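step 3/5: co-fold with cobalt (II) ion
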Amino acid sequence: MEAWGIHHLGVAVADLDEALGTYERLFGAEVEHRATVEDQGVRAASLRIGGGRVELLEPLGEDTPVGRFLAKRGPGMHHVAYQVSDVRATIAELAEAGADLIDPEPREGLFGLEVAFVHPDSVHGVLSEVVSTG
Ligand code: CO
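step 4/5: write tokens
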């Protein structure tokens, strides 16, 4: 599997608005998208920082994937997302390469992206996402 590059870094935060302010103030981040996604249990924002991108994730409750992450690990780095041309083809290649896929099928991620997640145990402790912008 060949990724084009890192599409974004996902960061778990306790308070989205406070975190947005921090990234704007410290790094000149600009908000690209914002959304509350009930079925993924998050309030999220995508920020552009120069040519890079950071995705901030605030859980909607404790019993959500990001809520459980925050309770266990505290705020901080949550995942790395790699840009690929075709998520479905990438999933097949990752499975072939022995990776443990959280999503065996592409699914709709935040902000209209097509995504799939790879279990952190397959990537030395880092939850990894593959993303196609379609
Ligand atoms: Co992401």
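step 5/5: annotate
The two ends are 17 Å apart (CA to CA).
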